Amino acid sequence: MSASESSATTFVDRVRNFVSENKQAILIGTAAAAIAVGGIAYYASTSSRGSTSSTTDVEKGEKKDRKSKKKKKGVSDADGPILEERKPKVEDDEAVDDLSKYTAEVVAALPQEERSRIAGIFKAQGNDAYKIRDYAKAAKLYSRAIETSPKAEPVFYSNRAACYMNMVPPQYELVVQDCDEAIKLDINYVKALNRRASALESLERYPEALRDFTATTVLEKFTNQATPLAVERVLKTMSTQNAQEILKSRGPKLPPATFISAYFAAFRPRDLPVLPENPSEGDNTLIESFKALEEHDYKHSLELVNDALEKGISWDVGKSEALNLRGTFKFLIGDVEGAKDDLNESIQLVPSFTQSLVKIASVYMEQGQAEKAFECFEEAIKHNPEDPDIYYHRGQVLFIMNKFDDAAENYTKSTELDDGFVFSHIQLAVAQYKAGNLANAMAQFRRTMKSFPQRSEPLNYYGELLLDQQRYQDAVEKFDKAIEIEKLKTPQNVLPLVNKGLTLFQMDQNIGAAERCCNEALRIDPECEAAVATLAQLSLQQGLVDKAVKFFEKSAELARTEQELAGALTYQYATNAQVEFAKNYPQLASQMNAMARSF
Prior knowledge:
Layout: H1 3-16, H2 18-21, H3 23-27, H4 31-45, E1 59-60, E2 84-85, H5 104-109, H6 112-131, H7 135-148, H8 154-166, H9 172-185, H10 190-202, H11 206-219, H12 226-250, H13 257-265, H14 281-294, H15 298-311, H16 316-333, H17 336-349, H18 354-366, H19 370-383, H20 388-400, H21 404-417, H22 422-434, H23 438-451, H24 457-468, H25 472-486, H26 495-508, H27 511-524, H28 529-541, H29 545-558, H30 562-584, H31 589-598
Parallel strand pairs: 1-2
Helix pairs in contact: 1-13, 1-28, 4-30, 4-31, 6-7, 7-8, 8-9, 8-10, 9-10, 10-11, 11-12, 11-30, 12-30, 14-15, 15-16, 16-17, 17-18, 18-19, 18-20, 19-20, 20-21, 21-22, 22-23, 22-24, 23-24, 24-25, 24-26, 25-26, 26-27, 27-28, 28-29, 29-30
Pfam families: TPR_11, TPR_16, TPR_8
Subcellular location: Mitochondrion outer membrane
Transmembrane segments: 25-44
C-alpha cells in the first residue's frame, strides 16, 4: 500500500464514519429527513451490541405484571414462552364455555358484543395451546377467533403468525400473510413488524426484511438491542451477496487513474528493461507497455502487456518484468489469485527480482497471511539488502498492523538507503504521530516539506495532522498550497481539495464551501471516491436523502473489490430503507426530532 493510497483509504473511512460522529446534527434535519437518516446513524454506532429479546412470543389474555424486570422468554426456553397482553381481553372464567357449539351459523346470529366475547375465548385457548407448543391447535383456535370476531383484530393475526413461525418446518409465507393483515390494521404494531421481518429474512427477501427491521428499530426508539443487530445482519447479507453478483456480471475493472498512480508511485522508478540484441515482436510490445505506463495510460498498458505475453517474450528478465506488471494490474483489479500466480512465476524466472517479492507480500497481506508476507520480505533482503523499497513496504505492513515504532525503523532504513523518496519521509512522520511522538512527527513533516518543496503530498499529509488537532486555519493553508502544486500535474491528485472541504465543514459547518470543494474534485477526477463519499454524507446532513442515495450508488459503481462494493451497497441500502420508512411513517417526524435533541 502506498502513502497516497493509505491516505485515501483512511480518508474514505473517516468520511464514512461521518454520520455516527455527527448523529445529533443529522437527526435534527427536516422532518422526513430526520427519520430517513436516523437509521443510518444508529446503524453506524451499534454494530457491537448484543441481542436479548425473542421475536416469537404471542400475546396473551392474562393480566401482565408490568413491574417485572425479568428477561422475556421465548418458545425455546425450557419453561415455555411468556405471553403478552393485547386487547381484546377476556376474564378467566369465560374460558370454561363449550366452544364446540359456536358453529359458523350460530356465531353469525349472535350480537356483536357476544361475538367479541367468544372470539376472546378462542384467543385465550389458543394462547394455552401455544404455551404447551401445540402450534397447530393454537393456529386453529386463532383462526376461529378471526372468523368469530365482528371486527378484525391485529393481535389474532399476529398470534397465528407466531404459530406458523414455530411450526416444523416453519410456514414463512403464512407468517408474512398474517403479519400483512395485522400491520394493515395497526401500522405501528412492532411485534408483527418484527415477526414479518424475521420471516422475510428466512425467505431471503432481504430488502423487505430490512424495511421492517428498520421500522421496528425507529418505532422502538432505538431501545431494543436486538433490532440494530438484525438490521446489520440483513444489510451484510444482502450487500455481500449483491456485491458478488455485481462483480461477477461486470467483470474485471481497473480502479481510478489516481488510485493506480498512487500504487505505482509507492515504488521507486526504474529504467526500462534492456532489450536483447534481436528483440521479438513480444519484446517490443512489452517496452510499449512500459511507455504507456509512464504516460499514465493504464488501460492501454494492460492491453499491451497481455499482448506481449501472448506473442511471447524471448528473454527471462523481460518475461519476469511482464509478469510482474500484469500481476500488479491483476492485484489492482482485485484478482488476488491471478496476481499471486503471475508474481510467483516472475520470481521463478528471476529469483532475485525483489519487486515481485515485495508485491507478492502485499498479496499475502490482502489474504490475511502476515507470516508469509514477512517471509517474502526476508527473501527479498537476502537477494538485495540495499533495496530501499523492501524496507518501505515492510514498514507499510507493520503500520497496518499498528506496530508504529517498528514501521518507523523500516521507513528510516529506507530513507538511509535513498533519501530522495518522499513517501518514506512522510510515512515516518505519520508513524511517529500514530505512536504518540507529536513533536518528532511535526518536526519530520517540516523537514520533509522543506526538502520536497514541489511535492504536494507532504503538505496534504501535514494538513491532515493539523485537521486532526483541530488547527483548521493552518490545515486549510496547507491544503491550498497542495492544491496549487497539483494543478500542474497530470493526473491531478484531488485529495487536498476534498480534505479542504471537510476542514471547512468541521471548522464552521460551511456545507456550501465543502460541497464546492468536493464538486471541483469530481470535475477534475470523476472517479474520486473520497469526494463522492463526502458529498453523500453532506447530503444526509442537509436532509437531501434522495441525493445521498445517488452518491451512494456512485460509490458502488466506483468500488473495485468485493469488500469496497459491499461497503458502498450497505450505505445505499440503509439509506433506501430510511427513505421508505419516512414515506410510511411521516407522522413520526416530531418524535424523531425530539429524540435527536436528547442525544
